[in-house]
Amino acid sequence: MSEPELETPGNHSAFDGIAPSYDSIFTQTSVMRAQRWIVWKVVRNTFQPGSRILEINCGTGEDAVFMARMGLSVLACDASRGMVEVAQRRKEFEGGDLPIDFLTVPTERIRSVAEPGSFEGVFSNFSGLNFVRDLGQVAADLAALTRPRARLLLCVASRICLSETLWFAARFQMKRAVRRFPGFSIEPVGDAQIEVFYRTVQNIRRQFSPFFRLYDVRAVGLCVPPYYFEPWAKRHPMGMRMAATFDRAFQRVPLLRALGDHVLLAFEKRS
Predict the structure, then answer these.
(1) CATH of region 9-159+198-269
(2) Which of 41, 55, 111, 191 has the highest CB neighbour number within 10 Å of its CB?
(3) How far is CA 234 from the centre of its chain?
């Protein structure tokens, strides 16, 4: 049997193959709905109706539709043509007049999507930026595309996921327990292998700091576990509710806020 193909950054065609089933295995699970609720609450408090927002790594369009219903105008981009096709169908089903435009473009070429200073905000949810090798270049591109005092909300997979580490360590699966710790791994996506970068908050802040000021950090999925815990979540609905309550209470506590499945970083463009 041949080895799975290694996808290079900027070439995420592997996601085309999983696009039709992505919502059922990820978006629509109770675990990820609980994590997304945390992110959406911050989105509501960050972006003002009427603003033009650039979404990168938009996936199947769940967040784009939510933001459009808030009264935001959204340009939603993804490297995967299959994901964008699913997102287009979601828009048509939800209401074709929603102010969303979808575009197939990798984050590494995001600067080409619009004129300089076109956006009041940028949004990226659930790990899209973990597939980007040169995050500093992305920061420079977003600085060119945004207006003064623009806000960025970036949700990325954490370097250390406390629930994941404890779960697998308790089962003596140490390789899986510490898979994120080195900051880099190769993960299977469909029939391919993808490079994934697990950066610390300090590393991301440093790469964005020439252009943007980090003003808020919070955990997403501190006690609510990663998506592959969905079978456990279905068997323990009370446990899931308790986990979600814990997350709301402790998501911004120093030290803990970097230990979720994801971390949500809020930036403001420097003057």
Answers:
(1) 3.40.50.150
(2) 55
(3) 23
